[in-house]
Amino acid sequence: MNNVTDKDSQAPDLKASVTSEPIAHTSEQDIRFMRMALRQAQIAFDMKEIPIGCVIVKDGVVIGKGYNQVEQLKDATAHAEIIAIGTAASTLDNWRLDGCTLYVTLEPCPMCAGAILNSRISRVVYGSPDSRFGGCGTTIDVITGNALKRVVEVTSGVLADECLGLLKGFFQQMRLEKGDSGNKGDR
User: Fold this and answer.
1) 66: helix, strand or coil
2) Second label for 98, Cα 20 to 30 Å away, from 131, 168, 170, 172?
3) Which helix (H) or strand (E) holds 110?
4) What does the DSSP 8-state code read for residue 49?
């Protein structure tokens, strides 16, 4: 799962706050669905998109999937979460995703965190925190204490090393393709 590339030369700052320790309350189900999100991220990697993948689950069933398609669709809002929310809403024939859990490989950005609130998703499980754009508490907290008064449970760090590894592999490959060894002491 480490064959990724993207056209965005701005790699997210993923150095901070990733631990390899398992989260105490991570369930086998969380791991299973995060692996599905990682498969979506691999699709993005193979399409030269930043490898972020997402699945949305209701009552143990995947009702929405998505991966980053910003470059392919030439749409800045085509993040994995937004695509997955759209497919889940279509599956349910309802924009209200109450009782759903969103699994995503990288902490949602503020835009995606807002969409999570607006779509009424009940729980977010993410892999790697994002110290540059994280909207679930790492950089900014759009979810907790939100103006909509919605309660969203957030679980972080599920398969964080695998999620981060895919992202790092992607940006490393991208640098190699551009002829930049990346050995400038910045990491």
Assistant:
1) strand
2) 131
3) helix 110-118
4) S
The whole-angstrom separation of Cα 103 and Cα 58 is 11
Bridge partners for 36 per DSSP: none
> Please, what's the b/e burial string for 14-43 (b: 16 or more CB within 10 A of its CB; e: otherwise)?
beeebeeeeeeebeeebeebbbbbbebbbb
DSSP H or E run through 72: helix 70-73
Q: Specify the 3-state DSSP secondary structure of 99.
A: coil
pTM above 0.85, yes or no: no
Tokens of 101: 């859990």
Query: Hey, what are 173's tokens?
Result: 């490959």
Which of the residues are catalytic?
Answer: 81
Range in 16-30, 90-104, 123-137, 167-181 the model is least confident about = 16-30
Per-residue pLDDT of 85-100, as tens digits, reads 999 999 999 999 999 9
Structure tokens at 104: 């995503």
Q: Which two tokens stand for residue 107?
A: 């902490």
- What secondary structure does DSSP assign to 64-125, as a single string? EEEE--HHHHT-TT--HHHHHHHHHHHHHTSS--TTEEEEEEEPPPHHHHHHHHHTT--EEE
Structure tokens at 94: 């309802």
